[in-house]
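Contributing new complexes? Match this layout with zinc ion.
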Amino acid sequence: MASLIACPHCGPRPKEEFTVRGDAGITRPAPDAREDAWYAYVYLRDNPRGRHKEHWHHTSGCRRWLIVERDTVTHAVYAVTDAAAQGETA
Amino acid sequence: MVDFALVHRPALAGAKSGSFGAPATGNRITLAALPEGHVLQVLGSKGSAGLEDLIRQIADGNQTAARAYGPGQWFVVGDATLSPTEIAGKAALLSGKASIAEQSHGRIRIGMSGGSVEAVLAKGTAVDLDRAKFPVGRSAMTLIGHISALITRTGDESFEVMVLRGFAESLWDELIQMSLEFGVDARATV
Ligand SMILES: [Zn+2]
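Output block (do not edit by hand):
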């Protein structure tokens, strides 16, 4: 339980409680976008070294999607926020 | 046509019961299967806020009956079984600001008490259960080992652990195991 993610709703929790989806910077193409745009969206990912924003799901906690900004080399965590826009949640 | 009768059995009916582990240490743990009354999952609708008072109105009045575990998410629990009509009545009280999902047969409550109860639970979860940080009435959805559970403080030295029905006996056995060093009295029948 070494790596802790500070969930904005639940407080610090071990990474085992979370599911990582990956890069939070990718935007979904329009429904009628070309096949190569969809291919890139579904399959192609960078493998960045350093500071990176990712979607993490607090699966075994509040079940909210979060944006975790962390360093992929040191695992220093800079910020954790809810992925939903302000006022969107109950 | 019914080929065989369905019998409703409490999830922990066949679980281990009795006294286990260290002899009297003064810090013994008591584990108890709680009545399979009602468990209502309440989800706030999009954009609604400040629902706490409303949620309390559909609870049975017990101080720890309404349990928040995330933004707009609660479990409302109690020992009494509720008819579909009673649940519909509660849903009407929420007047569209939140909805109810009936989970009474899906989740099992286990009561846990004793002087060393925090030390035992700390073996399974990373949540800080110290009284100052986790007062009576506070809840946390977390993992106990690999099993997802809702932990609620119900008193100075007592907690409730709510778990999916299919995991109840497995968690029960683990809680006994985790309590052995202090000694544990386990009552699986309500
Ligand atoms: Zn959380």
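Reviewers usually confirm one structural detail per submission. For this one: Chain A touches chain B at residues 1, 4, 9-14, 16-17, 58, 60-64, 82, 87-90 (CB under 8 Å).
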